[in-house]
Write a structure and sequence with these properties.
This protein is of the alpha+beta class. The protein is built from 8 helices and 8 strands.
Amino acid sequence: MVGIVNEIPRVDPNRCIGCTICGSVCPTVAISVVNRKAVVDYSRCTGCRACFERCPEDAITMEKLPKPRLIQYKIREDDPENLKKIDELCRRAGLHPEQIICFCTSTRAKEVAQAILDGVKTIEDLAALVGVRSGCKVECMEPIQRLYEAAGIKPERKPFMWNGKPMQGYQWYWNIVYTFRIPEKVKVKYEKFGYRFSDDERVITEIVEQEWEKIKEAKIINRSLSK
């Protein structure tokens, strides 16, 4: 995936009152408040428009860039051991490496997995480097957290700064219950009413295993063609 930043926010200091809402909703912590005025770090900004849409004073406008900025996280495709680690991490998270986990940016699981393996500790840094959470900022939080959990990492939360003091934003959404996370007591309770959670798990697992076999076959073919 290549993220494309076409526009960036501009703050009107005459209208800004330093309310901190823009910093609270920024998924990459690109905004801080200095002397009660919002300041944007454009090296982290993905142009997601969250600050623009939520500013109560209409102090932020979006400015089109003369040349789009690209966001792309490089996967070390030439390192077989690295690719194996990506595959294993995605498998533990119940995800396919090629699976799109951020529909707004078409980011795939393998890109997030690579960043996590490279030591990216916060979801805010992940968003700035990989480009996830640049659209709705909701749907991709679940698979991102599953990948961190599968890596044995509890992601740190990066604060934004308000006059030199760290502040917590509120653009985090926690894990939801999906097929493989349904508690056993819930399965037992509702399967007698006709719900077939065990069948769901079996079918999904079979589909995933079939896709994994396709990946292995494709990699074998690619290696043979490259020789």
